[in-house]
Amino acid sequence: MSSYTRTKRPIDISPSSEFTAIKIKRQDFDGSFLLVEGITDSKLFRKLLDCNSCNIRPVEGKENVLEIIKLANKSFEPGILSIIDADFDHISGFEYEHTNILRTETYDLEGLMLKSKALDFLLEEKSDKQKLKKFLQEKNIRTILLSKAQSIGYLRLTSLESNWKIKFSNMQFDRFVEKETLEIILDELVSAVRDITLYGDFYKEDMLEIIKILENFKSPTDDLWLICNGHDLMNILSIGLKFIFGKIGKEFHTKEIEWKLRDYYNLSYFKTTQLYNCLRTWEERNKPYKVLK
Known about the structure:
Elements: H1 15-25, E1 32-36, H2 39-48, E2 54-58, H3 62-74, E3 80-84, H4 89-92, E4 101-103, H5 109-114, H6 118-126, H7 129-136, H8 141-162, H9 186-197, H10 201-204, H11 207-217, H12 224-227, H13 230-245, H14 254-264, H15 267-270, H16 274-285
Helix pairs in contact: 1-3, 6-14, 8-11, 8-13, 9-11
């Protein structure tokens, strides 16, 4: 049996009711309030931040985070900030006008963890050293994962820019990830997301044209940490562990890998990030409110 437990889906959250709850909580708590997108984010930040001075609140999605921040700014309510996944904000050059909206310097929090040494400790536990060495052939595991996941990332970006409204949830990665090399089979990738989406302009597009777009999108100058979704990277890593370089008898489910990565990620890694520096800047601008340990 896997050592991780399934997270229960939270009830729907209304931004206005959550903002009201924060104001009520303020009556007996004079610290800061940190809004995050989900429960797994809150679990990670409770390890990294000062929970005595900062009340961390998962509010079920980026849209809710932004709406609550808007309400807080409109009401001049102090000491409320948020951390959200950047998604494609850095690629598009999008900037929020509010300084209490902080973003990851990677596509998402999962990318931030994969970029750290937490991944090395995970591989120490889960991988067979000889099999991994043979697969890497002197290359870096992060470079390999990013190079494989970029096609999915560019498809996500194309969908956003073209308003295709592709559904990427519940993708069956073993359908389009080659199990000996981790290469992405582009026609199978497009077919897989088509089967999930089933409607809209994306479904009317010619499959060969979409594949051509993906092949031409690849650029050696792009920072793939801004392109690749962390969950995509972990799903590819999961397949690599299961079929290529994992230890016999170990769990290789993506959720297990995500749970282990959060377990290995620690404050020393977080202190090296731009996000940590942004939190420190926020504290300086919003005294006496604190967030960091």
